Each structure stands twice: as C-alpha cells, then as structure tokens.
Amino acid sequence: MNKPDLKNLSLDQLTDFTAGLGLPAFRARQIFSWLYRPGIRNFVQMTDIAKELRLRLEERAEFSSFEPAVLERSEDGTIKFGFLLNDGNLVETVLISEEDRHTLCVSSQVGCAMDCAFCLTGSMGFKRNLSPAEMVNQVCAVQEYLHTEGRGVLNNLVFMGMGEPLANLDNLLIALAILTEQRGLDFSDRRITVSTCGLVPKMRELGLNTTVNLAVSLHSVDNEVRSRLMPINRTYGVEVLLAACREFPMPKRKRIMFEYILLAGINDSAADAELLARRLQGIRCKINLLPYNETPALAFKRSSVEQIEKFQQILWRAGYTVLIRNSRGADISAACGQLAGREKTDQP
Ligand code: SAH
Q1: What is the pLDDT of residue 140?
Q2: DSSP code, position 302
Q3: Which of 14, 147, 250, 274 has an alpha carbon within 20 to 30 A of 261's alpha carbon?
Q4: 256 phi, psi to nearest 5 deg
Q5: Ligand 1: which atom is nearest the Cα of residue 219?
Q6: Cβ burial 143-166 (10 Å sphere, 16+ → b, else e)
Q7: What does the alpha-carbon distance between residue 31 and residue 260 come to, in Å, rounded to a whole number?
Q8: Among the CATH numbers 3.30.1360.70, 3.20.20.70, 3.40.50.150, 3.40.50.10260, which is that of 68-332?
Q9: Is 238 in contact with 217 (CB distance < 8 Å)?
C-alpha cells in the first residue's frame, strides 16, 4: 500500500486523515507544525508525540523533503537550486537576495505547455505538474538552507519559476493553503505572488479562493503581436484578459502586477507604450518592465537601456507605477525565462 505524503495535505485535509486514524484535531495541528520545521525528516523526531503514536503514524503515512542536487551561485548572490524528483526530473528554484531580504522564485510544473516564443522553459515542452508537496518542499529546502547559513528567513515567494501555476491550480491552491497556514510556514498572503500568462477562467478561480498577489505576463496589448509571442492569446485575447483583470476579485489595497518584457523592435516602441497606457486605464495595477534575458537558442534581443527608460517615462507620465526589474542570476541561467531544468544525464 502506498502511504500518503502528508506534505500534500492542507491542515484541513490532514485533520481528516488523522480523524480516520481515530485521532483528535489537535494531533493534526501538532503533526502539521512538525512537518514544516527545519531538519525534520521522520516521525521519530516529533518528540512531543507519544512513541506508540509515532510508530503508528510511520506505518500509515510518510512525508517527503528535498535535498538540493544542484546549487549554483551567481556573482550577484543569486542561488539556483536544482531538486531531483522521484521520477528523475529536475526542478529549479531561484533564491534572490537583496541584503537580508530573500525572495524565492518557485516552480509549479516540470516544463511548461504554454509555449511562449521567448521563453526557454516553454521550448523544453511540458513534462508534468508538480504536486503540492513538490512546490512546498522547494520553500522548505531553501528556508532550511537560510536557517543553516544563519541568514534569516524567506520574505517573499513568487510563483515565477518553471511552469504555468494556473495550469496546475488544484495543486497550487493546496500548496498555498499549506504555505499560509500559521502553524506551519506562516507566509502572509501579501508576501506571495502568483504569475500567469493569462489563463482567464483560472484567474477568477484563484481570486475567489485566495488573496495572494496576482502578476500577469502581458508583453503586448496588441492581439497580433501578443498571439505571436504567447499562443495562449489566441484563446484568451487582450480584451478578455484585461476585462478579467478589471474584474479580478481582490482586496482594495491590492494591485495587479503586469509584467512586460521589452523585446527590441517587437513591443518596445513609444507607440507600444502609449497603447499600453491607454489599455490599462482603470485597472489598479503596477507595471514591471523586464529587460529580456537573451539566450543563444532564441533570436529575440533585449531593448537598449535608453529604449527601456523611454518606455518607462511614457508610462510614468500617464500616471502608472513602473519598475524596471533588475535581472539577476543570468550567469548561472537562473534569470527569468532561463530555467530549463536540464535533466541529469546519468538518470535512467
Ligand atoms: N507561466 C507564468 C510564470 C512564469 S513567470 C507566467 O507566464 O507568468 C516568468 C516571467 O518571466 C514571465 O513574465 C515570463 O514571461 C518572463 N520571461 C520568460 N522568458 C524571459 C526572458 N528570456 N527574459 C525575461 N523574462 C522572461
């Protein structure tokens, strides 16, 4: 019999599971809080639980954890972790640190089915969804790393690694429930951002079920250009996507983050910026401009600094909050769009 991995369960689900073993709800809370502490690998370590019960739990359940198989450090301090999954796939997670603030870029799938023209993850194709435990374990492993190094704790989580998180929404929602549970990792919803290429029906479902921040990869508000860059636009075009953003259920204080990669000669003209400013009118948002990270495998070019700043100024003048995302970790292929999870060749 396959034992369930308890890290796939939200606290409610764990409570149901332990109830099935005849245990009261407080036991579930107790076990849950152990699961997410650094260094906990087996039930024996859960020392405030009676020994008999620990043995029973061991017979009926298990819980997984990640040890980094790859750890690469960039000159700028960014660290890319590679975790080997049970089926031999590799998943990548990127730790971006500014002084003592740490942001973790979490993956939601192995590969990606969205096939965006500029993205290396897209060009590797889709392998499979990550389970809730496989998303949460990326966070646990890096939290543990920071703890061991005496470097504090993770401040922010962004689901901007490999994969399209909303194409794996059921597992994502469980992972979010685990990550935000006070008795475990206790991330506030304000410190978690989920980024989507624009899976419109799933955006609404996310908004109805959570209050995490939403980021939308826009890259163009011209249907012809956007469809060429992002095939998803042929299903959910710019009008439909922006309408969904307008209607996105979110608390008053929140804003949607639009990500916009600047690709030389494709979407970076003054006219593009003006069109963007017009189309986003009335949406509570901030805009993140992403200088394109070039890759030899793809022909796209990064816009010049002057072009990027000009683009930013047009949006500023129209009243938007606009940041230029400073790209990190390019020397170790850890920057946006560079996660391709090269498989280890020694795997069967
Ligand atoms: N699938 C989700 C999550 C990926 S987030 C999404 O599309 O939002 C990764 C972000 O990096 C997205 O905004 C993506 O469009 C962007 N990106 C992809 N390739 C890039 C590249 N080469 N340079 C800069 N940004 C890139």
Answers
A1: 98
A2: B
A3: 250
A4: -80, 140
A5: 15
A6: bbbbeeeeeeebebbbbbbbbbbb
A7: 43
A8: 3.20.20.70
A9: no
Q: What is the DSSP letter of 182?
A: T
Give the active site residues. Answer: 92, 336
At residue 240, what is the residue type? V
Q: Where in the chain is the domain with CATH 3.20.20.70?
A: 68-332
Distance CA 218, CA 50 (A): 53
pLDDT, greater one: 342 or 88: 88
Pocket residue to mutate for ligand 1, from 96, 119, 196, 327, most atoms within 8 A of Cβ: 119
The ligand 1 atom nearest the CA atom of 216? 8
- The single residue listed with the structure tokens 């990869």 is 217
Q: Cα separations (Å) of 332 from 77, 131, 142, 341?
A: 11, 26, 17, 12
Pocket test for ligand 1, best of 160, 303, 323 (most atoms within 8 A of CB): 160
Mean pLDDT of the chain: 94
Ligand 1 pocket, residues with Cβ under 6 angstroms: 114, 116, 118-119, 160, 164, 195-197, 217, 259, 261, 290, 292-293, 336-337
Locus of tokens 């039930």: 43
Out of 217, 286, 303, mutate this one to test ligand 1's pocket (max ligand atoms within 8 Å of CB): namely: 217
How many other CB atoms sit within 10 Å of the CB of residue 123? 17
In this structure, are residues 220 and 183 in contact, taking their beta carbons and an 8 Å threshold?
no
Question: Which part of the chain has CATH 1.10.150.530?
Answer: 6-60
CATH 1.10.150.530 fits 6-60, yes or no: yes
Q: What is the pLDDT of residue 149?
A: 95
- Phi then psi for 90, rounded to 5 degrees? -115, 135
Percent of the chain residues past pLDDT 90, beyond the cut: 89
Q: With H, G, I as helix, E, B as strand and everything else as coil, classify residue 215.
A: strand
| pTM given for the model | 0.96
Centre of ligand 1 from the C-alpha of residue 336, in Å: 5
Residue type, position 294, single letter:
E
Q: Are 62 and 3 in contact (CB under 8 A)?
A: yes
Burial class (CB in 10 A: 0-12, 13-18, 19+), 299: exposed
